[in-house]
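Hi V.,

You were right to ask for the full record rather than a summary. Here it is.
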Amino acid sequence: MHPVEFTNERNTLLAAERGTDATGVAIQPNELRLCGRRTLLRPVGSGDTKFLYELNLDPRILHRWRYLNRLPDQETYARQLWDDVLSQFIVESLSSETPIGQVVAYRPRLFHGTAYVGVIIRPDLERQGWPLEAAALFVDYLFKAFPLRKLYSEITDYNYLGTFSTGWGRFFREEARLKEHSYYDGRHWDLVVLSLRRDDWASVSAKFFARIDRRAEQSSPRRTDGS
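Predicted structure:
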């Protein structure tokens, strides 16, 4: 065998052991991850309708989410739950094993490789920061499970600063601003359109999940048998 051919074959075998091809491109996909250090994403079941209905119609959420102050009955809500939705999960707290929110990808346009993402967390928890771990899990899931190149998120101006202060803005960037678009409390507010590109997420997601894993290891109890 020619030395160059031998070297190329050896490089190919070594790369395969690392899960990449000879040029370093991954040939083994990463697993979908739905569990973090403090939150879990689980499928929406028939028994979740009441929780989701009450969460979506909470007065602190209703004016800035799907129904925009309209009040559908629970039967109508359940019937429309999957309208124009690509994917959605219940956000569950690992410590309490109770639902605390919802993540949803809606208005998908797979031809363009885009979708909108929404995150709803119980109002008493949403500004604590840690529940937004679920948002990162969901974004990661969407980019791995679907041929999306870009995610959008819409937020009214009066919630814009609060969202950034809890960390959501570390991932998304402002792409557009619709002046005086949304009405609430006697005035019109700007609607801010945020975006996150697949390549931007790829550049930060590994560090994000490594930090989650490191903290999980530090907080897990040590075994006495040394393992």
